[in-house]
């Protein structure tokens, strides 16, 4: 008489337990996105294909700790987010750096920031992530398959943007500055002069020392580029490679963005 009710209680309790979705959790809880970076492959706005500013892609990074970061060609932005239920909800303000760029890039930054704050629905199919609102759809692919990180060493990195902490400037037309790393050394070109020196690589930093250059005179705009390159290659500099982009950032905020040169 007493055994039957006890068995019934145990069975009911077992049935009430949620199904084990595995270590990654259910497919819409955001765990499947943790620690991944995605690059845009297509943008649709108001039902029509939307062209991003030339040479740019949207980059979305999810660190697995509740933080979402994005970049749209100029400034970096991000904030805390809730990815549960197949929706990306920013749980606070979206912060953004304040570099000066082309006005079209600022418009693109604002578009992406607004899109993230609109709480887009998300869906992952293989390595393709789709984000949708009522007016905009962004398709992205996992960076590891879309555009793998280039190795820091053995790659020619060509300077295309100069960072001074508050703004981003382009390289003068016709000037080519580049860096190459190998065997604890750096060599390259400032846009005017050849350069060389010591570059000790660590996981997140490069320690530059004994940088030297040839002594050719440069036009004013190219001389400004040379000064920016040399100002970056001092002491311990933070480095980060994402796909074909290398960012070098000095402790004073000065830095360079470089792109892997085509072979």
Automatic annotation (TrEMBL):
Chain ranges of the DUF306 domain: 55-141, 150-255
Position of the signal peptide: 1-21
Coiled-coil positions: none
Pfam assignment, any one: META
Record's keyword terms, sorted: Signal
PANTHER family recorded: DUF306 DOMAIN-CONTAINING PROTEIN, HEAT SHOCK PROTEIN HSLJ
Protein name: META domain-containing protein
Highest classification ranks of the organism: Bacteria, Bacillati, Actinomycetota, Actinomycetes, Micromonosporales
């Amino acid at each position: 008489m007493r055994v039957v009710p006890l068995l019934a209680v145990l069975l009911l309790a077992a049935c009430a337990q949620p199904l084990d979705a595995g270590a990654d959790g259910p497919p819409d809880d955001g765990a499947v996105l943790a620690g991944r970076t995605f690059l845009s492959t297509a943008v649709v706005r108001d039902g029509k294909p939307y062209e991003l500013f030339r040479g740019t892609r949207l980059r979305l990074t999810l660190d697995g700790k509740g933080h979402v970061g994005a970049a749209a060609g100029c400034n970096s932005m991000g904030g805390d987010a809730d990815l549960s239920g197949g929706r990306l909800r920013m749980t606070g303000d979206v912060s953004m750096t304040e570099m000066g760029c082309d006005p079209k890039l600022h418009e693109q930054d604002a578009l992406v920031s607004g899109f993230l704050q609109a709480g887009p629905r998300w869906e992952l199919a293989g390595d393709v992530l789709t984000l949708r609102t009522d007016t905009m759809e962004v398709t992205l692919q996992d960076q590891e398959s879309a555009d793998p990180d280039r190795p820091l060493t053995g790659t020619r990195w060509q300077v295309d943007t100069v960072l001074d902490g508050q703004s981003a400037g382009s390289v003068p037309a016709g000037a080519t500055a580049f860096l190459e790393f190998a065997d604890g050394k750096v060599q390259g070109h400032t846009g005017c002069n050849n350069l060389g020196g010591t570059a000790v690589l660590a996981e997140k930093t490069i320690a530059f020392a004994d940088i030297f250059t040839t002594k050719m005179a440069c036009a004013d705009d190219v001389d400004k580029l040379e000064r920016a390159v040399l100002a970056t290659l001092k002491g311990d500099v933070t480095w980060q490679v994402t796909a074909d982009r290398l960012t070098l950032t000095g402790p004073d905020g000065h830095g360079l963005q470089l792109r892997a040169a085509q072979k």
